[in-house]
Specification:
Rossmann fold, Zinc Finger, Delta Prime, domain 3, 5-stranded parallel beta sheet, 51% helix, binds zinc ion
Amino acid sequence: MSKFSCDSYNFISIIDKIVSSGRISHAYIIQVKNYDEDFLLVKTFVKEILCKDKKTFNDISSCSSCNICSLIDSDNYPDLFIIEPDGKEIKKSQLLGLQKEFQNKSLLENKRVYILKEADKLNETAANTILKFLEEPSNDIIAILVTTNRYRMMETILSRCQVLSIDSKDSEVIYDNEIADLINFMCDGDSLFINYNDIINNILSDKVIAVARLKIIEELFVQYLTDKSLNSFDKYFLKLSDDIIVKYTLIIEEYLKKLEYNVNYKLWLDAFFASLLVVRNNV
Ligand SMILES: [Zn+2]
């Protein structure tokens, strides 16, 4: 019945969490494997954001029954703007048209969304125009930049967007405030266990999210151990010795493996954090 692959399933779970937590960011970069197939998932994300009939999003077959979702499906929703490269690049003139649209008040009293398809093809002046948009976010406007390679995006744009990925090789990256909170929690000895319930309820609320987030942290630890100059989380990592970071990395790896078996998630979490604490206390 489902047309989504496993990676897609993870992606849907992640966007479900984002939307149901109400923490929708004003700008996203979504890395896709392929523009045609994965664009359906990008649209699912848009539907989740705009749909008023949320109860139908309980499983991965998203709502397509309400008026808003039907209009999005048929590319007729008036407050969804999709921009694609005009020839080889996305030009500034295309974005000025968009800007003009946004000067008019929306009649729908809902968020407005623009999608830049092949966003890595923004030419330089267009990229600077987008950057201005992103620097002065408006409450009701959400930007979604879709690319097959986020590393081709300007650093300044990348740093202003939350990154999501539909590419499994990419370990379903979500590079967000929650990641920073989790890293802070793991690296700061004083806060370890004080905010425990908060962390597990909000940041590691289920298995899929935990795997995605811990894989990212593992990757960041390894990156930090290899080249400290590259890491933007070093203010947290510096609280730990390299020795502890190596041990933390091994613990994450070990526990991610355990999660592949049918373990009780809550007990798994407790054991995971207890292991981190043992490492901390044995120094
Ligand atoms: Zn709907």
